[in-house]
Design goal:
eight-stranded mixed beta sheet, 17 helices, 26 strands, single chain, alpha+beta, 3 domains
Amino acid sequence: MTFGSLSWLRRHGVFALSLLLASLIWALLHFAAGTVLSQLEERAGDVVWRLGAERKDERRLIVVDLDERSLHEVGPWPWPRATQAKLLQQISALGAQQQILDIVFTDPQADDAALVQAVQQRRAVLAQVFALEQGGQPQVGQLAGALDWPTCPAPFGTASGYLANFAALGALPVPGAVATAPVATSVGHITPRIASDGFVRHQPAVICFQGKSYPALGLVALMHGANEHALAFERGSGWLEAPWKLSAPGLALGSIPLDERGDLRVSWRLHPDSFISLSAADVLAGRVPRGLLEGAWVLLGSSAFGLNDAIATPFGGAGSGLQVHAQVITALIDGRTPYTPRGTPAVQVLAAGIGAALLLLLTRKPTQNPFRRRRFPVVFLPLLAGLWSILLWVGHALLLSRNALWLGWFDPALFVLITGSAMGILEHAKSRLDRDRLYTHLSSYLPAPVAAALALQAPSSAIRASTNQVSVLFADIRNFSAYLEARPPEESAAVLHAFFSTATRVVEAHGGVIEAFQGDAILAVWNGEPASGSTTDGSSAGDHAQRALQAAIQLQATMQGVLPDPAPAGLEPLSLGIGAETGPAMAGSFGLASRRTHMVMGRTVTIASRLVEMTAELAHPILVGEGLAAQVGGAGLESMGTFLLDGMRTPHHIYAYPLHAAQFSAPNLH
């Protein structure tokens, strides 16, 4: 469909075309730059986390940090096993309920026994890491902590390698577990899901390796704290449920939601300052306040840059990997792991539909909408679509921060934005076509400069007029009243149409403007002032007076072949009388805003009109006033004397332009 065909489309046609264009553009953008669009939505989610992050003292999970000061005081990492064991013993002595280690002990050392004993006595949760998206096929240490699933389900990714704890540490039995329970269930992976922009927003809940399923560190910590050793995996069924979910009988908080890939979405609802972080050096030296760790879970890891555990988070481009596990664990404890419900696509379609419906409602004609008297400006449609997008983002932010629901907002917002822009462009194009059509019609009834000025103005009841030095030409068909009375209306209309058409072409060819058709007469003006108050063409009085005179001569000559000749029987022959004058006149628009007229008025116009009436009396078809005669220098003009024109108080000198036979051979202007 072309823009030209939009001139006859109804408003619903523009809306339907806008929806079609929006759908095509939306699909094309997702095909060509789907990753970029997803990244933009995630970045917007980062803003939600950053702006709405809670600041509170989180005492259920305390961080013990192998920070730069610890490495400076105790020594470079790795520390001797005795020192590592002492750190675990100190944490336990301070009353910690559970120790979660974000550290992988890959290399065996001579004094491993001390660390093995400390891990076993303190029931520490160990870590291991897989090569998932990062590539590579290392197989260091001994994997442990596999779930008792017969196979690894489809949504979970398969690793190509791993870094695990040394064999003696990875084979620890689980204290209190029954004999049939799998060993080393207190080991969880710390593998992140790194987005294309480098940020960590997801973590695989389970990773597959050689047909076995290995859960994440946060899940293991939650199970270990509840003394639970099994997880059930199932597909979400309800519209408000996650695509996948994990559950265990011992977990009082219900199921754990996962996305379509089987990932945990990291909840960044707690500001990093909410977590109490203790330096490992202070723990070893006994500089920790009493009671601080009593009954708390302790996450042991490193923020030192030399240990290569830096990640990008919504709160900074170089945060500690500890932050991911701290956020995941606290969200699991609170049952506030963010997830995308299965019914999200339907909600997004509904949001896009509501936004598009609002655009349609506002662009309906005022007569179709009783609540609006004026049409909504189409230029604001993209802005309205942008406002709707902001509302979607706010709604998304509220649901995410309060209900841990990631419904997404970018796709419906993008669709509405494209729809609003398309509607704005198409409606603007349609309005331009309508305005051009209206101007074309308007300029056929009014002088073109006046029509152009009125098309850009608001209706007004004020006088809009100006006075200029003009040349005026009146041309009237003599004996036409009798002709009209005697001949059929169709024949008379044909004569008038031919006269008006010929006069318009002649006048415009000489730079004039037809101001009015008055019965069987025309009024033409040169250098008239448009109703808008804009400037005239700037020509001199002598110039437009000469052009008016030449137009009168050519019009008289051209009409010899247009008017019926000979006249019908019993009728006087039709002939053309022309009067022309140069002088001041006022041109403008007058009347109420609801009904106005455009006219040229003044002494000059009156004189030209009276000269037409005298053409029959003086037997000259072209008469000019003294003002025009003075401007053209009187060349070729014949003085007819001074006359007191009808309705005037001062006599005027009248001149005639005698026409010779040769002058009746005029160029064809049809």
